[in-house]
Amino acid sequence: MFKQFITSSLGRKYLMALTGAMLLAFVLVHMLGNFQIFLGAEQINTYAHLLKSKWPLLWTFRLVLLVIALTHMVVAVWLFVDNWRARPIGYDEEKTQQAGLASRTMIYSGALILAFIIYHLLHYTIHFLFPEYSSYAGRIQGTTDPVPDVYRMMNHGFSYLGISLSYIAAVALLAWHLSHGVPSLFQSLGLRNDAVSKFLERFGWVVALMIFFGLTIIPTAVYAAVRGWIPMR
């Protein structure tokens, strides 16, 4: 049953839409969690400690998220190859022009986003780029033991202009990806028609811009605060 579902074009589109929606939900939750940096060091360090203290759930969630992300990427490549093979010789140029630029570059923006995710994990999760992060320790209420000082890590990382700009550029790319991905999600699920098409296109851009400003305000504010341009807790 599942084999028939996954080998059908419609089934792969459904799977692409569902995994995309799950990844978008994670981005929103991740963004809201990171907003706690504006509440001060203790708040975001408490949040980080809470996640790490539930390590069985945390690692289960990470593994499930990894499966979802890999499924999304594999199906995306599968659909891209199918569409490429289906193109007749002398593919209609007018049809290509009618497809939006974001639509025609989804596979490429997705690949670049994957590269950034790997970089992000090496930076803040694995501490490969800055091994000293593993020794950053903070204090929070409710425990006498030192906890990972995520606040200091973020302040250190985003104090570098190149790192902050790379994060902003990656988020811009993600927003570009979502501007087409969100409307396509509804189309793949059969929820898009002529009556709501324009609304869904605008909704896609609203979601994309919300993600862009929500995620870029963090490196921008931290960089400005480290430079003494703005106050920050």
Can you describe what's shown?
With 233 residues, this protein is an all-alpha fold. It has one domain: 3 helical TM bundles of succinate and fumarate reductases, CATH 1.20.1300. The protein has 10 helices and 2 strands. Strands 1-2 form a two-stranded antiparallel sheet. Strand 1 and strand 2 form a beta hairpin. Helix 2 crosses helix 4 and helix 2 packs parallel to helix 10. The longest helix has 32 residues. The protein is globular and about 60 Å long. 18% of the residues are buried. About 3% of the residues have low confidence.
Give structural attributes.
single chain, 233 residues, mainly alpha, 3 helical TM bundles of succinate and fumarate reductases, two-stranded antiparallel sheet, 2 strands
In CATH's first tier, which class applies? Mainly Alpha
Order of strands across the main sheet = 1-2
Net shape: globular
| N- and C-termini, Cα separation | 55 Å
- Please report which band the strand proportion falls in: under 5%, 5-15%, 15-25%, 25-35%, 35-45% or over 45%: under 5%
Rg is 20 Å
Q: Unreliable runs, pLDDT <50, ≥5 residues?
A: 93-98
Q: Helix segment count?
A: 10
The structure class reads mainly alpha
Order of helices and strands: HHHHHHHEEHHH
What is the CATH-assigned architecture? Up-down Bundle
CATH fold naming: 3 helical TM bundles of succinate and fumarate reductases
**Total domain count:** 1
Question: Main beta sheet, described?
Answer: 2 strands, antiparallel
- Tally of strands: 2
Q: Roughly what percent helix? A: over 70%
The chain-level mean pLDDT equals 91
